[in-house]
Structure formats: structure tokens, C-alpha cells
What does this fold into?
Amino acid sequence: MKILISWFAFLFLLPLNSDISARDVPKPNQNIVDVTQLLRSDKVRQLEIIYFPEEVATRTRLTSEMLEKQWRYKVVINELQSAPFKKRILAAAEASTFKRTDVRSDLRLGCFFYDEQGNRLLSFFSDATGKVGVLNDELVVSNGRLAKVLKGVFAEFH
It folds into this structure.
């Protein structure tokens, strides 16, 4: 009889527990969802790319905060809207996938998108593989397409 009551209680409470866990599941982050929408808009005026070479060893992994302060190379594009590689960046963003993660990596590439008033709209960092990084302060894993194109744009100027 106790077993039957226990099973009944378990089956009765199961839908309540699944509802609670469904509410606890993180919803897609607006910052991640709006990457391509932001790049399609005319709001983005300036693009900054910072880079710390993979071949340069550091004592600890570089975080996004450290990379912003300790970069070795920097490229600034003041008029992204008229830049010839804007379409490549947009195509890479559209083909990119981002998922939240708890994985932290040694970040070597950083990218910032600004509006015409100089307000930062988007920040993206990635490791040497381009597959682990930070998007607007969120740890993410990706397919690496956006990082690959940004690194290529950077290489054109370096």
C-alpha cells in the first residue's frame, strides 16, 4: 500500500516538477539571437578587432577583460557600412551558431561593434580555434565561422 501511495505521489508531482524545470531552462539570450539583426541594421558604424597572437605564451589564459587591456594588434574600421568586407561578416554571422556554455578558454581575438555615438553595441571574443568565446559577456561555443572571417579581415590589415 505504501508503495502504491508513493507511486501515485510521484506520478502526481511529476508534471509539477517538469513544469518547474521547464521554467528553469534558460531561454535564448537576446544578445545571441540579435547578432545578425544588429549587423543588418544601419546602427553599426565602427568595428574594432583586437588580437593577441596564439604563438605568444602567457602565464594564464586570457579573459575578455585581459584581452581588452593587453592586445598586441588592433584594427579600427570607422565606416563599416561602406567597408567591402561587411557582406562577408554578415554572411558569417548568419551562418554562425552560438550556444551558452560553462567552458572558458584562452581568448586571442576580440571584436567590438559601435554605433555612431561610440556606444558599444556588441562584443565578441574567441579563442585560437574560433569555437569557444564570449558574446556580450556570455560564455559561448560556436561553429567558428564568425571568428574565422573576423580573423581574415584582421589579416588583410596586418
Observations:
- Residues 1-31 have pLDDT under 50 and may be disordered.
- The CA atoms of residues 45 and 82 lie 9 Å apart.
